Structure formats: structure tokens, C-alpha cells
Structure prediction request, 153 residues.
Amino acid sequence: MRRFRPTLLLLVLGLSAVVLGGCGGGSDKGNSDTDALSGTVHAACNGSRMSAEPKLPASFPQIEEDKVVYTKQSTNGPTEVVEGYFNGDVQEAHDEYLKELQGAQYKILFNEVEAPNDSEISWSGEGRTGQVALRNECGSSDKTYVHITNRAA
Prediction:
């Protein structure tokens, strides 16, 4: 009769414990960021028009009021953040912001559209850099979440 080696048995048991320990029973720790983001998006997509002027460079393109509504803004360190929604899909919003940024002589650093889901336009101008991020997250294909960041260059 063959004897099992204690070392081999301990190795098999140890590996089994590691494999089983990594499975199932996960917590919701990873979802708290997602929940916070979805709450932010919901507030931006459903909020009322801000009474204050958005904290954007003076020459930043002003999209027509019937197309875009800025609903909130905040400061995160050196970065100004303006959020709201665009009345139209991601492609329409992307095309409008790109056209207006170029028309205002902003330098386009990066430009990507992945319709119908999202778009990013990174820009520089007036001594500042930033990004217009557009997301299909407002719950309707004809309403797009707008997230604009800008900071000193």
C-alpha cells in the first residue's frame, strides 16, 4: 500500500483553500462607486438649468439653450466640472461640440466617438485644457449626459 506524503497533501489542501476562497460570497464594495456615479448622472440628467454661469473659459462655445442644459457644477482641486444633458443622441452631441470647439479655435487634442454609447473630445484653448465627455446614460436615446472638465494648462 502506498503512503501519501504529508507535504503533497498540505499543498493540495492549501491550493484548494485559495481557489475556493476567491469564489463567491463577494461583497458590494465595488458597487459603491458605480452607485455614486449613477446618482451623479441621474441628478445631472434630470436637474433644472443652473442659475449661475458655468465655470468654463470665456470663449468656450455656447451651445443653443434648447440643445444643452447645464444642471450642476463643482470644483475638484484645480479642475472645474460642469455637468448636464444634451437634447439629442451621442453622435449629435459629439458633432455639435466638435464643430463649436473648432469654430472657437480650440485645439482638439483627442477626438473619439463610439456611438451610440459614448464620446470624448479633449481640447486646449485660452490657457486651459479639458474634456467634453458624452455618455448615453440619461435613460433615453435622445438625451445625452454631458460632463465637461477644464483646468489651467
Remarks:
- The first helix runs from residue 6 to 21.
- Strands lie at 68-76, 79-86, 107-114, 118-125, 128-140, 143-152.
- Helices lie at 6-21, 31-46, 90-103.
